[in-house]
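Quick question: who can interpret this fold?

. . .
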Amino acid sequence: MNVQLTSEQRAVVDKVLCKENVLILGPAGVGKSVVVRAITHELSKQGIKPAILAPTSQAAENVGGVTLHSFAFKDFGD
């Protein structure tokens, strides 16, 4: 991934890599999707496939995730 993250964005990615929980909020255009994609990229390099959840279908589509509602009712099998 060749996107230059700001120091704040990098700090969020680093927190996730240190197994801390994060909640990414902000208005349109501040780079939330960029951070989520960077996190997903870093975790995939470690063989981890995170569940990416978003409140709306548009937001979920932007980050390659699913809505909270569809995740809650997903059949994970037994």
